[in-house]
């Protein structure tokens, strides 16, 4: 029976809050194996083959090439039962391949929601009040007036949220406290659910046309890649602000540069990139109207602690045969439970 075996959890040596290791150390029957990303491929594969759980980075550029949880890798890991992501995103996981293989996928949705929401609002304020731009100019030159850096208030402006899940709902609450009108486009929710989350439901075209600020809070899926492109940026209001704290690839970086450089958009706050970190000569980094972060919207002490603790606790729950609170593919749980209880670890 699996329940009598040591449950082995594999993770790479990306930064984790120490609480994750502590939770596993305090729980009998669990072994956490942290492997260097620089280790020889065969050593990494050997450690993964001996593991029941793959604790995988959510950020694509933190994961070494070849270790994405896809069909090719899973075929080499017949003992694997579960893939758990560090954060809410699962860009590094082929969800369909895991589901076909009977592997349960977990995430930590909500662990960094408050942190990301605060960062998104911070970027909106920064862009609208030109705070970073003013700071840079004050450090570099003289001979300009304060009016050269005149910004705008967010009060009584319209915020358009593309996606209003855990993070978007928190952004909506803070925005309303600032006196903003909030609209949202989320095809996965009903009009009533969007309203309950704090916004007026609209279609994407209406959101782009009416919003003074457009902020993305949706996952990276086939239908959302390059959602914001030349055509959709053109539908935004003249002088509007664009914010992306969700995922790289949701906006076309070339199209965004063109919309900003032409003066059509008034500013952008970008936390996520096609390549992270972006190269130093990235065109967007040369624009004064861009406030740039290095995928740090969710990187706070509080969020990192929650992510580490939640991940460990959820793994312990499911490996004890109990449903986890954040199962991405819950339909797999019966098959996962069968393999867990019978010791049949043949996923494919």
Characterization of the model:
The protein is of the alpha/beta class and 348 residues long. The chain has two domains: 7-107 and 301-342, NAD(P)-binding Rossmann-like Domain (Rossmann fold); 112-292, NAD(P)-binding Rossmann-like Domain (Rossmann fold, 3-Layer(aba) Sandwich). Helix content is 35%, strand content 15%. It is built from 13 helices and twelve strands. The strands form two sheets. A seven-stranded parallel β-sheet has the order 8-7-6-9-10-11-12, with helices on both faces. Helix 11 links the parallel strand 10 (240-244) and strand 11 (265-270). Helix 5 (113-129) crosses helix 7 (166-177). The longest helix has 19 residues, at 301-319. The model has no long low-confidence stretch (mean pLDDT 95).
Summary keywords:
D-2-hydroxyacid_DH, Rossmann fold, 348 residues, 13 helices, 12 strands, alpha/beta, NAD, D-3-phosphoglycerate dehydrogenase, 7-stranded parallel beta sheet, 5-stranded parallel beta sheet
The gist of it:
The chain is an alpha/beta fold and 348 residues long.
Task: Record the SSE blueprint.
Blueprint: E1 7-12, H1 19-25, E2 30-35, H2 41-49, E3 53-56, H3 71-74, E4 82-85, H4 95-101, E5 104-106, H5 113-129, H6 131-140, E6 158-162, H7 166-177, E7 181-185, H8 191-196, E8 200-201, H9 204-210, E9 213-216, H10 230-235, E10 240-244, H11 253-261, E11 265-270, E12 290-292, H12 301-319, H13 333-342
Parallel strand pairs: 1-2, 1-3, 3-4, 4-5, 6-7, 6-9, 7-8, 9-10, 10-11, 11-12
Domain D-isomer specific 2-hydroxyacid dehydrogenase catalytic: 32-329
Domain D-isomer specific 2-hydroxyacid dehydrogenase NAD-binding: 121-297
GO molecular function, one term: NAD binding
């Amino acid at each position: 029976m699996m329940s009598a075996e040591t449950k082995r959890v594999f993770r790479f040596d990306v930064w984790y809050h120490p609480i994750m290791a502590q939770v596993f150390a305090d729980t009998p029957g669990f072994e956490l194996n942290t492997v260097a990303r620089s280790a020889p491929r065969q050593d990494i594969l050997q450690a993964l083959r001996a593991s029941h759980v793959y604790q995988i980075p959510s950020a694509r550029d933190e994961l070494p090439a070849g270790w994405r949880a896809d069909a090719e890798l899973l075929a080499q890991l017949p003992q694997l039962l579960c893939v758990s992501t560090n954060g809410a995103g699962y860009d590094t996981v082929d969800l369909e391949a895991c589901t076909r293989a009977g592997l349960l996928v977990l995430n930590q949705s909500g662990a960094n929601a408050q942190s990301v929401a605060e960062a998104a609002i911070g970027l909106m304020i920064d862009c609208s009040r030109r705070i970073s731009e003013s700071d840079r100019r004050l450090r570099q030159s003289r001979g300009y007036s304060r009016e050269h850096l005149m910004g705008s208030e967010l009060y009584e402006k319209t915020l358009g949220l593309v996606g209003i899940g855990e993070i978007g709902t928190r952004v909506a609450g803070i925005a309303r406290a600032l006196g903003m009108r909030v609209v949202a486009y989320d095809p996965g929710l009903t009009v009533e659910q969007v309203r309950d989350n704090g916004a007026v439901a609209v279609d994407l075209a209406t959101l782009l046309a009416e919003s003074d600020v457009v902020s993305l809070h949706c996952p990276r899926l086939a239908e959302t890649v390059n959602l914001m492109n030349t055509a959709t940026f053109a539908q935004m209001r003249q002088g509007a602000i664009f914010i992306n704290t969700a995922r790289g690839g949701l906006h076309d970086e070339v199209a965004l540069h063109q919309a900003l450089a032409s003066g059509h958009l008034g500013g952008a706050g970008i936390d996520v990139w096609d390549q992270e970190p972006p190269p130093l000569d990235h065109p967007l980094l040369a624009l004064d109207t861009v406030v740039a972060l290095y995928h740090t919207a969710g990187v706070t002490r509080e969020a990192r602690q929650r992510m580490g603790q939640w991940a460990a606790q959820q793994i312990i729950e499911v490996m004890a045969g109990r449903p986890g609170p954040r199962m991405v593919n819950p339909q797999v749980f019966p098959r996962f439970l069968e393999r867990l209880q019978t010791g049949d670890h043949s996923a494919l």
